[in-house]
């Protein structure tokens, strides 16, 4: 192909037809790993993620010879410690069990995936250096050589097969990443072939979220031991975990991608947003996530620290268990959408750091529908719909919320409860520490009403729409007609056709109102100016390339 940057539609058509236009042809992409850069990449650059096509980043590295894969850094770490404060800690350090973003920010430094996004949003090689699309349902991955796990166990095709096979287990929370994979076969020690039941356009971006685990260590020690004693191939080794306090990692001096500049990373749990800001101002934390919006102005004149804002890709919504009590009725669900003043919440609680949405698909995703308009704030209409549904005096219900995980989540939940009460719906608000909350989420124990955020590494509407699909652990709604369209969309390689199907689904979901559509939050981070690092829009905290001034 003569063009420097291929669009996703080109990949889709090539995957379907083959490089010569024949169905079943094979395409081979090998990342450039022979050239290396000596720059530190400064750990950042504002991430430009608006509708980045899913496979074009891979093709950029595959087809343009001047681009460079991650290369070695200086042989010795420069030293120093960087402390990150988040509102939640990992539920586990087992890569198959931990799928929350706050946990991923820790485990990503321990376990390398096959691919990841760089700071500009392009998909780059990690433990995989290339791939072949043999036919629309068969992918072959070429693996990096000379890599070892932290315990000395060699990285090879057996580790990749073990990881994918274990993720495929139905009781694995990471199953959703590989759902649709039919078979994983070792071709040779550095080649793995993956066969899917149907075309799976999101396979590569999904693999970015799956850290590769050492098969011998995992099987010898067992899952419960690995959960607190992780071993990967990543830029940092696990040192200690003080539950409900901090996880400490130290630089891997044998890292295939070069020794990190920063010797030690500490991930602290500080659930209270004001306490996180206090720790940041005092110098106890170098980076904080979900900076309290009302406190951003308080650091404006402090040259040691700054607040950085990113375009949001995380959708915050109020989930409704549509199989329970009054929430079975579409009129009730529509009433709840009219009852909540989302504009006031974004303005007064988030300080404007958010965008009110009419769908659970953020604008940056492939398939976002720009034609829908948010439900207006109309409490009179909400009361009329409740009366029409047979609830003129409202009803009582339980509302669950995390505290400290998302931007001003506790205050937002409290405001929503107030709006519901104004139309006669008495919601009993219960707060949970994130570890307990997310455990209940994975076990499908939340509801009937709860606040949750969702984000997608693929930037594709399929991930968001899973929350309103059938027979999955993270959906409290099922409509077989919508499900049929969803299944078709997920197997559609052509991005334009897939996006059209996603938009069709969103129109149907808008009317069904299985959630209270809320907003996409912006990312607000506190960053100490002694650090060369810039936050990314996808919420990934990647510090392996960060440096201290």
Explain this structure.
The chain is an alpha+beta fold and 549 residues long. It has a domain at 313-520: Dipeptide-binding Protein, domain 3, CATH 3.10.105.10. It has helices at 8-17, 56-63, 101-107, 157-167, 175-178, 203-207, 215-221, 223-226, 273-282, 330-339, 342-348, 379-388, 409-422, 434-442, 461-465, 480-490, 495-512; strands at residues 27-30, 81-86, 115-117, 123-125, 128-135, 138-143, 181-188, 191-196, 236-242, 246-251, 264-269, 287-288, 305-320, 354-356, 395-402, 425-432, 449-454, 515-528, 531-532, 547-548. Strands 2, 9, 10, 11, 12, 13, 14, 15, 16, 17 and 18 form an eleven-stranded mixed sheet that branches. Helix 10 (330-339) runs antiparallel to helix 12. The longest helix has 18 residues, at 495-512. Mean pLDDT is 87; it is low at 1-25 and 32-75.
Q: What does the main sheet amount to? A: 11 strands, mixed
Beta-strand content bin: 15-25%
The name of the CATH architecture of the domain at 313-520 is Roll
Helix content: 25-40%
The third-level CATH topology of the domain at 313-520 is Dipeptide-binding Protein, domain 3
Count of DSSP H/I helices: 17
Q: Structural class of the secondary structure composition?
A: alpha+beta
